[in-house]
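tool_call predict_complex ligand=adenosine-5'-diphosphate
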Amino acid sequence: MNIIFLGPPGAGKGTQAQKICAALKIPQISTGDILRRAMKEGTETGLKAKSFIDLGQLVPDDVIIDIVKERLAMDDCKNGYILDGFPRTVPQAEALDTFATIDSVIDLEVDDQVLVDRLSGRRVCVKCGATYHLSMLNGAVSCTVCGEELIQRNDDKAETVLNRLKVYHAQTAPLIGYYEKKGLLHKVDGAQGLDNTYQAILKTLGAQA
Ligand code: ADP
Ligand code: ADP
Ligand code: ZN
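tool_result ok
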C-alpha cells in the first residue's frame, strides 16, 4: 500500500510512520530525514536546503520532487511505502500524481497549542535520529536506542516553530481538500496517546485494505 502521512509539524508523523512501517514491513520515506542527512554530509542539496530549513521555510518544490521521484523508483518501494512529510504543497502533490499511485492519505489532526509544546520539547538523537519528547525523558540526555547524545533541532527553536506552523497553514493545509476530493483522505485524531493513535491509524488502513 502506498500511503501519505499528512499533518502539521509535530503531529507525530515521524513517530507513527516508523511504527506502522515496521508493522507493515514497508519503507518510511521521510523527506525531512533525507534533507537532514544531506545537510550533515554537506552535499550540494544539503547546503541549499539548509538556508530554507533553518528559517522554517519549505525547500523549493523542484529540489524535493526530484529527490522523492528517485527514491520511489528504488526496489524496496515495490511493495508499498509511507511518505512522511511529502507532499507539502499542491505542486508537489500534482507532481507525485505523475509518478506514483497513492492508496491512502492519513491526516493526523492536532491543535496548534499542542504542536508548539511538542515541537519545542522534541529532542532527537544526533546519530540515529530517534525522536523523544522532554516529558518522556525524565532528565535523560542520551538515546535509549544507540546511547548517543540528544539534541534540539535548529528548526525546533521557538521563533522558527511559529513560522513553520504559518507555512503549514498557508502551503500544506490545502492538501487536505486536494485529497478529500480524490476520496483518499482519512482523518485521525493525533492528540491521543501514542498507542491509541497507532491503533487508530492501523484500523483506518486495515478497514480499507
Ligand atoms: P516535521 O517533522 O517537524 O514536520 P520535517 O522533518 O518533515 O519536519 O521537515 C523539516 C524541514 O525540512 C521542513 O520545515 C522543510 O523546511 C523541509 N522539508 C521537509 N519535507 C519537505 C517538503 N516535502 N517540501 C519542502 N520542504 C520540506
Ligand atoms: P512530526 O514528524 O509530525 O513532526 P514527531 O513524530 O517528530 O512529529 O513528534 C513531534 C514530537 O511530539 C516529538 O517530541 C514526539 O516525541 C512527540 N509526540 C509524537 N506523538 C505524540 C503523542 N501521540 N502524544 C504526545 N507526544 C507525541
Ligand atoms: Zn540514537
